[in-house]
Amino acid sequence: MWTANKWTEYELLDCGGGERLERWGDYILVRPDPQAIWRKSGHKAWNSPNARYNRSSDGGGSWEVRTLPKEWRIRYRDLVFNVKPMSFKHTGIFPEQAVNWDFVTEIIRNSKRQISVLNLFAYTGGATLAAAAAGASVCHVDAAKGMVQWARENAKASSLDKKPIRWIVDDCRKFLEREIRRGHRYDAVIMDPPSYGRGPSGEIWKLEDDISSFLELVSAVLSENPLFVLVSSYTAGLSPSVMDYLLSSVIKQRLGGKTDCSELGLKVLSTGLVLPCGSAARWIF
């Protein structure tokens, strides 16, 4: 398992009973987690979190806030993120993705050349910031205008707003198709697609139906000297080995290179266990 174990301002204090107990900087949050089906360890912070997300019986849910600012910041190495309680239990960061940020940072720096990165379904920009801080030029694409603005604010907080980053609000498939027609190519592609979503013009995305043909487009937008492709998934039915096979059958078969895959995880402070939190696959030339 690829474990994000280098955080200092985030901790998974405990988990169990379908919930996780987390420290985000100075604040303690309780959020649902369907993977954590074992017993809680009895950590004392369960009794007094700053906020708890409660699921409703008809789907969704809401935050029960005791003492929590509308927004605050946490840091991962030199990257600074604005976090806040959002609908459907999110905070604006998936902390397990830090292990992928480390991968992006290392492989770009070790390439010893200028790298152009395309970050698709780029959310609030964790991978964008990691790539830009490592010296790459980045094209950041997300269908949600609010998420792109949030990513820009994270870039400014991280003193990366002057870096060569293009901020694009667009449907990722349509953007890829246009980039191919324009002849624009990238040395690396990062993508963290949702299980289900809609583009700005109502375009429907369903991961299981669309991922294979989408990777064909990704293959076509790679440069003549590509570096890597990184795919993450939080879809329960899409295992790391399935994503590895997709990368192998679409990209490795055409370009060579190698693939690797794993679950993503967060270490549980109270027990030493590692909580599975999605998965990822990587193709490296």
3D structure, described in words:
- The protein is of the alpha/beta class.
- The protein contains 6 helices and 17 strands.
- The two termini are 22 Å apart.
- The mean pLDDT is 94.
C-alpha Rg, in Å?
19 Å
If you average the pLDDT, what whole number results? 94
What portion of the residues fall into strands of 2 or more residues? Answer: 25-35%
- Main sheet attributes: strand count, strand direction, barrel closure: 8 strands, mixed
Return the structural class: alpha/beta
Distance between the termini: 22 Å
Question: What is the H/E string?
Answer: EEEEEEEEHEHEHEHEEEHEHEE
How do the helices and strands line up, and which of them pair or pack?
Layout (H helix, E strand, L loop, with lengths): L1 E2 L6 E7 L2 E6 L2 E6 L18 E5 L5 E5 L6 E5 L2 E5 L14 H14 L4 E5 L5 H8 L3 E6 L2 H13 L7 E5 L2 H11 L5 E4 L4 E3 L5 E3 H15 L6 E6 L6 H16 L2 E10 L6 E11 L1
Parallel strand pairs: 1-16, 4-5, 9-10, 9-12, 10-11, 12-15
Antiparallel strand pairs: 2-3, 3-4, 5-6, 7-8, 13-14, 15-17, 16-17
